[in-house]
Design brief:
Number of helices: 15
Organism: Paenibacillus tianjinensis
Order of helices and strands: EHEHHHHHHHHEHEHEEHEEHHH
Keywords: Hydrolase, Lipid degradation, Lipid metabolism
Shape: globular
Largest sheet: 8 strands, mixed
Strand content: 5-15%
Protein name: Patatin-like phospholipase family protein
Structural class: alpha/beta
Distance between the termini: 54 Å
Pfam families: Patatin
Amino acid sequence: MSRVFESFGLVLSGGGARGAYEVGVAKYLADQNYIPAAYAGASIGALNASFLGTASTFQAGVKHLEQIWGSIQSNDVVKLNKGLFVFGFLHALFKRSLQSRPELALVNPLLQLAADSSRFFGRLGQVSRLLSDNPLYSNLQKGLLDDGFLRNLLEEELALYRVEHAAPIWISAYASQGTVDDILAYLLSNLGIKDNPDSEYFKLSEIDEKQRLSVILASAAIPVVYGSHIVEGKRYIDGGVGGERTARGNTPLAPLVASGCRQCIVVNLSDGAMFNRHDFPDTVIIEVRPETSIHPDGMLSSLLDFREDRIKDLISMGYSDAERCIGNALLALNLVQDGRRSTLIRDESIRRLENDGFDEMLKKL
């Protein structure tokens, strides 16, 4: 790798079917023999990070992951996840309505005004309690869909037994307060009223081996759609839910930085991610972002689009963007390092000239 970027962490964000883009980024890294020293992932990024981090070699992990993505049957995935995006669809529809119908723009300021009132939050609590008392709530807690397909895939294909000897892997997961409360908190955060709590980060090698699969499944457990998973006595859901306004849950760079990682590559799966690299001023961060829209037909359709040709396009796009972003960034870092090295050599040469006694010899002549 670059002589100034020899050890780095790889952060993989969540984003449904767009996770194929991360495979393309990984392929570029493998082709250049750039091997991550640590991983962190959320939702689909958690799955990708787990496969890459537990492989016998990084190159083998990339090849295996590409095979898995290439073997996905679109009908099976869409059938499994069809309800997954109901909540997101309703929210997207609401946001779009605000843009297309100016008269509805009054709603957002009213919500903001209401947020300043303790009575407003008290009423939210009442709503939550009323919904929680509904007999249907217990079924809602279990999720609309069975995650058996995903569980079987991970049990058959993921080498979790290698975790102790693998590069560190952190998984982002959100401590659930109950389905209704989770949804209300997410809505308030997404509307810019009040940010929801941050996700928590689990280092796979430091939790009980029987809990590791549950952590990964929890990271991908979208509220309502999939049931939560119990980890260390608490219920957890999709890691991308936490800290929604700053994307710290969906882009889990924080645990890598906290562990001492000072160089990271962050892969974003949206056109305008909320992640802010300036929140980590002491870390050298290379971001890989799509050069062209990664969801040209809309956020919802891109999350569901597991068609074979689309997966191939995303992998190709990820590879191309990685080549552009990482290649150019490393070139710039090397130039900066060369400039610093030249400055040090110049200063040392000047110091030696000043102390070589030549001026004293001239005076004697």
